[in-house]
Amino acid sequence: MSAEEKREQRLKLLEDHIGRSLQDAESSGELKSAPSYGRPLDFGDGYAQTPDELKMPFKVLKDAGVVPPEVETMRQIAALQEQLSSTTDPAAQRALQQRVAELRQHLALRLEKLRSTGSL
Question: Most buried of the four, 29, 36, 74, 86, by CB within 10 Å?
Answer without folding.
Answer: 74
